[in-house]
Design a protein that fits this description.
Helices cover 33% and strands 27% of the residues. It has a six-stranded mixed beta sheet with strand order 1-3-4-5-6-2. About 11% of the residues have low confidence. By secondary structure, the protein is of the alpha/beta class. Helix 2 packs antiparallel against helix 3 and helix 3 packs antiparallel against helix 4. It starts with a helix and ends in a 24-residue tail after the last strand. A hairpin with a 2-residue loop joins strand 3 and strand 4. It is built from four helices and six strands. It has a single domain, classed as Roll (Nuclear Transport Factor 2, Chain: A).
Amino acid sequence: MTLYNTLRRELLATVFAISTALLASPQIAQAADTKADLVLVDPGDKHAVRNVNNVLTLYQMMINENRAEEGTAKLLAPGYIQHNPLIADGSVALGKYFAQVKSTHPSAHVVVHKIIAVGDYVFAHVNFVNLLTDAPGDTGIAGVDIYKMNSEGKAVEHWDTLQVVGDPKNSAPLIAPNIPRANANGMF
């Protein structure tokens, strides 16, 4: 066996082991009441596991438990930078924003579908249900949240992208009415 083949075999074995560890780790990073369908985090990276748990706890407190101001005070750094143009910078501003959302729409909640942590970053694929309406059949707002975390596990910066979740007959309600889905894959 040549050196090339030996190195190739060892590299493939390492990649397989890391992939298996990442895919087998959902139970590690789900201490919060809010769970994710898929969690990708290196179980050996204690900071990344902590960061995932903190983001899940933030969603739980801020939206699902109607404890927005307490959750943001606990899990966001005071100088938190917000890139969503509808919300001011700072942990207090985000807490007040979601306290108002819950006051206006008490049934608002978040469903976390996927969450990934790499280094200081946490990426979450979520559905905010009843964020803008109290309609029982609300399909929600799909979001991808990106959090930058500090060494204490608190969020210091946040980016997001949001899209209204349509239905099979009206897949893009903000663009035009009655645009049928081009595929049956769904958003989550």
